Automatic annotation (TrEMBL):
Species the sequence originates in: Shinella yambaruensis
NCBIfam families named in the record: hemK_fam, RF_mod_PrmC
Record keyword Hydrolase present: no
Gene from which this protein is expressed: hemK1
Stretches assigned to the Release factor glutamine methyltransferase N-terminal domain: 8-78
GO biological process: methylation
Annotated keywords: Methyltransferase, S-adenosyl-L-methionine, Transferase
GO molecular function per UniProt: methyltransferase activity
Protein name: Release factor glutamine methyltransferase
Reaction catalysis annotation: L-glutaminyl-[peptide chain release factor] + S-adenosyl-L-methionine = N(5)-methyl-L-glutaminyl-[peptide chain release factor] + S-adenosyl-L-homocysteine + H(+)
Length: 290
């Protein structure tokens, strides 16, 4: 006897997730099925009439159980798309967010310009996690090279694997470091999406974030700004002439992060909002040429 079709399994999955109070039940059901069955958006439609075998149905059921227990879709699949990359996730890495692509898109033209002017561009990504920001920039700007630094050895292992999978390993180095502590040399661009959640807020985040993203990737200290202070203090010593420092920030941190950077001699040259209209990325340059 034939099993249920993909369309039938999709409809049942959507109902199960909606019944369990999952907000985007339709989107999550679709993303899970596409990922589990390795289908593209097009083949998902053209194969909607095909039957799922028992092993496939068991895999779908297990994935739905995990989603209902509030595990995020891409953690269940173990990977997610970011910029033009396919990134593997691990328990030690933050799941990269689409908002972070804003920082990548803002920096790529600067990196290209530096490559055109000097023949190369050295990028340092502090708190690299999966390697998302650095690897996406290396992919977009073939003349660039990058260092991804992180305090988590497990995250760095994942970043190295992602560099391999995405064909940029020859231009990427992973360094275990407490911010700049083990970083050597000077860079054209220092970029970071550091932990920036106010410590007292971490416990109130959705289960999907609180229980599945590592605390090291979330907790920004008492006021959420510890990492920006540490990076601002060390950036000058690791920047080439006319080098840039760029951050992802929390929606309400623009003025405070700008003040922290100004105190260390940097001027803000860009402030970029996300699609929701919130401040999301800032770019700085040394106010006085070094
Ligand atoms: C918000 S996550 C960003 C991950 C990745 N860059 C991204 O955008 O998806 C912050 C990262 O900073 C790392 N981190 C936290 N404290 C650190 C420290 N003192 N030195 C270096 N990395 C640190 C965490 O392990 C985590 O990978």
């Amino acid at each position: 006897m034939n099993g249920p079709t993909l369309a039938e399994v999709l409809a049942a999955a959507r109902r199960r997730l909606a019944g369990a109070g999952i907000r985007d039940a339709a989107g999550d059901a679709r993303t899970l099925l596409m990922g589990l069955l390795d289908l593209t958006p097009t083949s998902f439609v053209t194969e909607s009439g095909r039957s799922l075998d028992e092993a496939e149905r068991r895999a779908v059921d297990a994935a739905l159980d995990r989603r209902i227990a509030r595990e995020p879709v891409h953690r269940i699949l173990g990977r997610r798309a970011f910029s033009r990359l396919d990134l593997v996730l691990s328990p030690e890495t933050l799941e990269p967010r689409p908002d972070t692509e804003i920082l990548v898109d803002a920096l790529a033209p600067y990196a290209e310009k530096i490559v055109r002017a000097t023949g190369g561009c050295r990028i340092l990504d502090l708190g690299t996690g999966t390697g998302a920001i650095c690897l996406a920039l290396l992919d977009l700007v073939p003349g660039a090279t990058g260092v991804g630094a992180d305090l988590s050895a497990g995250a760095l292992e994942t970043a190295r694997r992602n560099a391999d999978i995405n064909g940029v390993a020859d231009r990427f180095e992973a360094v275990e470091s407490d911010w700049f502590a083990a970083v050597t040399g000077a860079f054209d661009i220092i970029v970071s999406n550091p932990p920036y959640i106010v410590r007292s807020v971490v416990g109130t985040l959705d289960d999907e974030v609180r229980l599945h993203d590592p605390i090291l990737a979330l907790d920004g200290g008492e006021d959420g700004l510890d990492a920006y202070r540490a990076i601002a203090a060390g950036a000058g010593a690791h920047l080439r002439e006319n080098g840039l420092v760029a951050y992802e920030i929390g929606y309400d941190q623009k003025d405070e992060v700008t003040a922290i950077m100004r105190e260390k001699g940097f001027s803000r040259i860009e402030a970029i909002k996300d699609l929701g209209g919130n401040d999301r990325a800032l770019v700085f340059i040394a106010a006085v040429a070094r």
